[in-house]
Amino acid sequence: MSNNDLANALLQACQKRGIMLATAESCTGGMIIAALTDIAGSSAVVDRGFITYSNEAKMDMLGVSAATLEAHGAVSRETAIEMAAGALARSRAGLSLAVTGIAGPGGGSAEKPVGLVWFGVGLDGWTVTADHRQFADKGRDFIRHETVRHALELGLRALGQHQPDGATP
């Protein structure tokens, strides 16, 4: 399934649930919200996208704590969770998708190599969850494209797994 197909499916799932969507993006620089808003009619469910490339932006726009960034770094489970929670709290969205990672070509380390991306998923009324992927270092474009794909898939999965009374998306 292409990223466009995934974005369309996520928009439809949000519309069916009657919820808005927000993104909090670092390494993708707005590619997730762009994939969603490229689709006509997306304004029915897309509320906003937070592009928080710097640590200051993560703190100012999303409320990520300085202590979290100092203790765990921008590319961490803890930061992804705080980004997703902040996007929910600072929007009208019922679903938030957050990404923070190292797209390369530089910036990686032994502990956090190029291709490491943490994802946060917030669904109103549920605990924010985190997931990570270590994408192959096949270049910045590849890592960012795969990050968008996985974020959209996580959004669909969240809506499918968290249905009240066993309903389906």
UniProtKB/TrEMBL annotation:
Highest taxon, organism lineage: Bacteria
InterPro entries associated with the record: CinA-like_C, CinA_C
Limits of the CinA C-terminal domain: 4-154
NCBIfam families associated with the record: PncC_domain (TIGR00199)
Protein name: CinA family protein
Annotated source species: Mesorhizobium qingshengii
